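REVIEWER CHECKLIST
Item 1: Sequence provided? yes
Item 2: Single chain? yes
Item 3: Sequence as submitted:
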Amino acid sequence: MKKRLVGFVITTVAVVVVAVASFVSFKVYNANAGADKGVAAKVNGETIYINDLKQSYADHPQIKDKVPFEEFYAKTLDVFVNSKLIYQAAKTAKIEETPEFQRQLVTAKEDLARKLYLEKQVDEKVTDEEIKKLYDEYTSKFESQKEVSAKHILVETEDKAKEVIKKLNEGGDFVALAKEYSKDQAVDLGYFTADMMVPEFSTAAFAMNNGEYSKTPVKTPFGYHVILVEDARASKPLELKDIEPQLKNMVTQKVVAEIFDNLRNSAKIEKYSLEGEVIPEK
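Item 4: Structure as written out by the authors:
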């Protein structure tokens, strides 16, 4: 129902625990890194240390925040063992001596250098002060709007909506009727401003009083709605703690863009077409 929000509200993606193993397999550490922290496994005489897994765990905070190390260890130890087996097989097959390995090694080193450089720059420049500055800009430009809190029952036909309204008129419970009739499981829509809903829905909802339900079906592209308005209030800016991750992401994007701008402005760049002609900088 709700339109996609833009600006300061950005959707985040949750990390699924069952994907831990495949995610971590990209980063298996040199065994020498944890020689003093206990042995996790031995593979054809080569040792994998517990500290190798601890380092991988520390390097993935999105996993660390959701999974205790003991569970991480249990899920990923075989990943490290399998990775060691594959590497040993690759060495036996002399893969490191092939031209393709040497070519990809150069690319991998460049990719790693770029990644670490950008991470270092971002860590230095994405500060709490910059995030607070962006939050203050957001609050200073915030324009309060009326918002209502509502529930709805969504059905396919106008006759079905009228049937629901008839039962409400007879004293029926809105939530109970929603469970019986509504094809939208999101019965409680929470608070929303007019521009967050399709126009037909907003027009009806914002014309109603608190505690009132629509006496006639409300048609939208989704079907026919029966709306119950529960409350109305003036919208307020979101608290810093509620949007800090989104603000940090915005500051990070700004910092990265500035890094590229500064590098390009201080560099001598010459580009050529396939025909060998100079491509002028825009």
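Item 5: Key structural point noted by reviewer: The first strand starts at residue 39 and ends at 43.
Item 6: Recommendation: ____
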